[in-house]
Amino acid sequence: MKVCVGTIVHHPEDARIMHRQIRALLDAGHEVTYIAPFTHCNVTPPQEIRAIDVPRAVGLRRGRAHRAARAALRKGVKDADLLLVHDIELLFLLPRRRPTTVWDVHEDIAGSLETKPYLSELMRRLLPHLVHGVERRAERRHRLILAEAAYRDRFTGNHPVVPNTTYVPVTPPPPPGDSRIVYVGHLSEARGVVEMIELARRLRPHGIRLDLIGGADAAVRPLLRDAQREGLLDWFGYVPNDHALRMAQGALAGLSLLHDVPNYRQSLPTKVIEYMARGIPVITTPLPHAASIVGRADCGLIVPYGDVDAMTQAVLRLRDDPERRAVMGAHGYAEARGHYHWPDQARDFVSHLEEWAVHVPSPALHRVVPA
């Protein structure tokens, strides 16, 4: 099977796209063409794939990225058996003649608009209605894969769920240490970057440092650079997921301090599972899915939204109790290995694409989709 995978929004090394889905397709013996912003993100494509480079869609000025994506999609699907897209805006750019098209729904797109600082208040009010309309239209025309079971409420059909799990090492990781805490993932105000900087400030007298591993929104980069110059933390910028998790291993705790915004309420933060997989106790805000897993598995501590005092006390409590820390790390690893190991979902993911690719697309899929 030949699969064309496309994104102009996500980083080419996005963990779900590159390290899970594309890797699963390659391991199953399929050929992959990958349309992604390689040059923009300074990424060298792996040799196993056929890469098509496009600009990245950032902020409000996305016209150049859209024009390039339209041409790249025409090129990428010429001999493809299936097209897998990861951005809602690519649904407006699909070529007239294309194979069966699958949209991988990563997030609550309408809910995420609240966290986009470049959008005006008017756009934040109007865009959710447009997004819901595009979702309904996409459901009629394409196949859908959902990253969360909760996303089913937005659609009428029974679409398969492919959760955002992770690779869990076969061998249990070493016990957590006592001198650093980590955060792995994109950095933004809604993801708790302001609280993390203040937390680092309060922990410095205790000899505990903060490692931040991930890219950042433009709005918070000055805060991070200032904090790093002050010696409060180490910010490593974007690091490919597999390497980032190796860097996190052995930390005292992993942070997931997301705010209570619509896009996060329905989702399980993948970073929580990633910390568990590496034997790191989790410190999380009380988002429903994260708090449920951490509480049930007894693999971390839950702190109130925005409460840096509580976050500081949680870190110090773990630092001062090495036995409890080790037990939480072991519990998290066991839970992740038993329920959140990506290869267990990879087989279903590949099977869905193989099933859909063998069917001839209906005439509706060959109609022009207005931009």
Salient structural properties:
371 residues; alpha/beta; Rossmann fold; 6-stranded parallel beta sheet; 12 strands; disordered C terminus; EC 2.4.-.-; glycosyltransferase activity
Chain-wise SSE layout:
Layout: E1 2-6, H1 15-27, E2 31-36, E3 50-53, H2 63-76, E4 82-85, E5 100-105, H3 109-112, H4 121-141, E6 143-146, E7 180-184, H5 193-203, E8 209-213, H6 221-229, E9 233-235, H7 241-248, E10 253-256, H8 262-265, H9 270-277, E11 282-284, H10 288-297, E12 300-302, H11 308-319, H12 322-339, H13 342-357
Parallel strand pairs: 1-2, 1-4, 2-3, 4-5, 5-6, 7-8, 7-10, 8-9, 10-11, 11-12
Helix pairs in contact: 1-13, 5-11, 9-12
Describe the structure.
This is Glycosyltransferase. InterPro entries: Glyco_trans_1. One of its GO terms (molecular function) is glycosyltransferase activity. Residues 176-333 form the Glycosyl transferase family domain. It is built from 13 helices and 12 strands. The protein starts with a strand and ends in a 14-residue tail after the last helix. The chain is an alpha/beta fold and 371 residues long. Helix 5 packs across helix 11 and helix 9 crosses helix 12. The strands form 2 sheets. A 6-stranded parallel β-sheet has the order 3-2-1-4-5-6, sandwiched between helices. Strands 9-8-7-10-11-12 form a 6-stranded parallel β-sheet, with helices on both faces. It folds into 2 domains: 2-165 and 343-363, Rossmann fold (3-Layer(aba) Sandwich); 180-340, Glycogen Phosphorylase B (Rossmann fold).
